Amino acid sequence: MLEKKTYLLSRATMLLSNSLFGMIIIWWLQTQTGKSSLVGLTNAIFSITAALSIFYGPIIDKHSFKRTSQTSLLVQTILLFLLTAVMFWLSHDIVLTILISTIMSMCDEFFSPADRAILKESVPSKKDLNSLISKLSMIDQVVNIAGTALSGVLLSLLIAGQSMLVCSCLSLISIFFLYIALRKIPSTKPQANDTDDKTNNYRAKVFSGLKYIRQNRFLKYYFWSCICYSFASPALIILLPKLADKLGSAGLYSTFYLCFVGGFLLGALISGKLTPTVKTIPYTWMLSTIPLLMMIFFLSNWLALSVLIALFGFLTSFQNILSESMIQITTEDAYLGRVLTTIRTSTSIGGPISSVVAGIMLDHSGDQILIILCAVFILIGGINMLFAKEAAN
């Protein structure tokens, strides 16, 4: 049985540590080298480790989800303390810093799907599972805000190495909570499937997750919708500071971000009380394009933009949480690790391209065209999910 309160504490401290790590490492690289190109390269490496998640799936499915999550978080914590030591005593070894950070990023790609897979093992009710996923989504958003704020405070009061030490200690606390939360859950391996029994070929196991998705009525449509969304999401992240800059206030950037999070949290509260069904997902997916397109007419009105961004976050929350629940419900335990990592790849694959193209478009084509293109990608994903609804009937 999962000890939910302790598990949520573990999740919160782990996410806070990750949020701080991202901010601190970028700041440290920028101040040590003065090269934005190096910062961009590091971000690209992090994106690539996420996009390659499909290759981690067979390893996750081969072992106990409990042991995988605990081990990956433990290794990540050890690397954080090692990175802290590098910052204190080897501050000019940029290559070693990026190498450790890359391995840490890979550890997180093992931890996250294994951690999510544990939920299905320990929460039998569909409604309880959806409620827990809703709470986790709310924690994710709140902790991201807290991490951003805390990193600013730490970096203004402490040097980067000391800030990274705080980050390392938070990760250590997270391990402590995680071991307590999972102590009553057996360390059992997922039951092997027929395909795995017949082959030891790693490549075949990697793509067996993709094959499983293609054969699943919900997942095969969700996979392609996620690819569409992966081109829109990074572009919208780049759009927010541009809008704030055009309105002449740096404070509006954080305001817009808080509005999105506020809308997302409200949506998470409501969606957490629902029983997840395929029918709801495509409609909330498509409806989210309405506030997005309306932004075109209010680009000079910060108040209207704030309301529309909050509404976009509200609708996005529904499709995110309900989709996550449906993934867990419709996937066999033996394939869950591979499915989650393959979906992770689909949600990340458009990131590097989208970020570059969005930056060029904002410099040359204007905000309106980028917003329209993002809405089109999201709408295509929503329309595609309508076929998932039909398949489920």
Automatic annotation (TrEMBL):
<feature type="transmembrane region" description="Helical">
    <location>
        <begin position="221"/>
        <end position="240"/>
    </location>
</feature>
<dbReference type="GO" id="GO:0022857">
    <property type="term" value="F:transmembrane transporter activity"/>
</dbReference>
<keyword id="KW-0472">Membrane</keyword>
<dbReference type="InterPro" id="IPR011701">
    <property type="entry name" value="MFS"/>
</dbReference>
<dbReference type="GO" id="GO:0005886">
    <property type="term" value="C:plasma membrane"/>
</dbReference>
<protein>
    <submittedName>
        <fullName>Putative permease</fullName>
    </submittedName>
</protein>
<dbReference type="InterPro" id="IPR036259">
    <property type="entry name" value="MFS_trans_sf"/>
</dbReference>
<feature type="transmembrane region" description="Helical">
    <location>
        <begin position="12"/>
        <end position="29"/>
    </location>
</feature>
<feature type="transmembrane region" description="Helical">
    <location>
        <begin position="163"/>
        <end position="182"/>
    </location>
</feature>
<keyword id="KW-1003">Cell membrane</keyword>
<feature type="transmembrane region" description="Helical">
    <location>
        <begin position="292"/>
        <end position="315"/>
    </location>
</feature>
<dbReference type="Pfam" id="PF07690">
    <property type="entry name" value="MFS_1"/>
</dbReference>
<feature type="transmembrane region" description="Helical">
    <location>
        <begin position="369"/>
        <end position="388"/>
    </location>
</feature>
<feature type="transmembrane region" description="Helical">
    <location>
        <begin position="252"/>
        <end position="271"/>
    </location>
</feature>
<feature type="transmembrane region" description="Helical">
    <location>
        <begin position="41"/>
        <end position="59"/>
    </location>
</feature>
<keyword id="KW-0812">Transmembrane</keyword>
<keyword id="KW-1133">Transmembrane helix</keyword>
